[in-house]
Amino acid sequence: MINYCTVADKNLSAPRQVIDNSQTLYEETTMRLILLGAPGAGKGTVAKLLTAVDGSVQISTGDILRAAVKEGTELGKQAKQFMDAGDLVPDQLIMGIMKERLKEDDCQAGFLLDGFPRTIPQAEQLKVLLADLGIELDAAVNLDVPRDVILDRLTTRRTCVDCSAIYNVKSAPTKVEGVCDKCGGKVVQRDDETEEAISKRLDVYNEKTAPLVDFYRREGLLMDVAATSSEAVVAAIRERTGG
Ligand code: AMP
What we know:
About 40% of the residues lie in helices and about 15% in strands. The protein is of the alpha/beta class.
């Protein structure tokens, strides 16, 4: 039994045609995307909208790290100081997480990498890891959002500590202040969303993560999307991947 969905081939113009064991020709629909973009560009929101449409899984290294910090695990203890300062967590820790995560069964329905890779060494190691696992990426989507829009978004953003749902005090507030509409969890401003930490994170992004745009352009995987609403971004991605 084959699920019928649509995923772009490398040139992003048509669904990939695959012949299964019974020689049936079908169009594969599983999306395997990287979401690139500065903090606050809307990667998390776009990922949630897309996964709801196609059944793929959102993998956010930021969410994984925050959960580890909350649970007080060894990983969480090692990551917390970097995160609170707005710095990147060392590549070695991140690759350890992703090596395990990408092997989990739910990734077979496709995945959206949100906040990973964040450095050139991470991107290079991801390339090797995916080749080892026999997985091909469909695209690296670059969400291009102006800095003033990002700053405004981040300082007004609120996040549910339980289910990671994202709200905005101006444009998408919770129905009851401080309470998640979806799970009833506590909705807060993240520790790393103070003005000082945000400014540091944007500098770190420009220095360490922005070079990934050229990296994926050279790989022939870059898809630039300039849109300010998450819905418009999702529509553009679906149109260009046939998803
Ligand atoms: P995010 O929610 O994606 O903005 O991530 C929050 C914080 O987690 C970042 O500011 C980093 O400290 C850390 N982090 C998340 N993903 C990565 C990554 N791929 N590499 C290094 N640090 C990361």
